[in-house]
Structure prediction request, 172 residues.
Amino acid sequence: MLVQQGKYNYLMNCSIPVNYNVRLSEAIQVGGYDVVCQNIREEKFPLQAGETGLKYLVPGIFQFDTQLSLEEIISAMDQEYYRPATLRELLSFDRNSKCSQIKDEIHLVALGQSYTTVKPLRFVPILGRDREDENKVTLGVREVTLLESRFGFLGFVTLDALRALRDSASAL
Prediction:
């Protein structure tokens, strides 16, 4: 369930499982996406340090009413103790039945992973309804300088970090 926090931040009051042991190709197949960009593959989006086993994360979606730089978006997430999602986390978020309808409303972007082609071009994963055919769901990539304010930027906080924040707040 989404809980609106401020004007454009939507923080979830639930956690979702993320199984980092699932191969990227399997996670994509389970998602049943209509269109998958050829650049969404293991070589471009490998597992990152610490991405092992099954973890439970609390998602949040950040939207802004103005165009922001990548650094400004990440800073806004950090102020809420969130970090940008990776591709596998984006796919897990979409598989969660409580969250899957969100891609029908906005395009979700995972800023926690990117790849570079010709510098300085950096691409990040994006998931949402196809612009040309709204009956199709597309898993693609977007160049970071072309990120639009209408997108939702997916972030996560760990359950342990959330508990520590609640404990420190209640101690005040």
Remarks:
- The chain has four helices and eleven strands.
- The mean pLDDT is 84.
- Residues 2-171 form one domain.
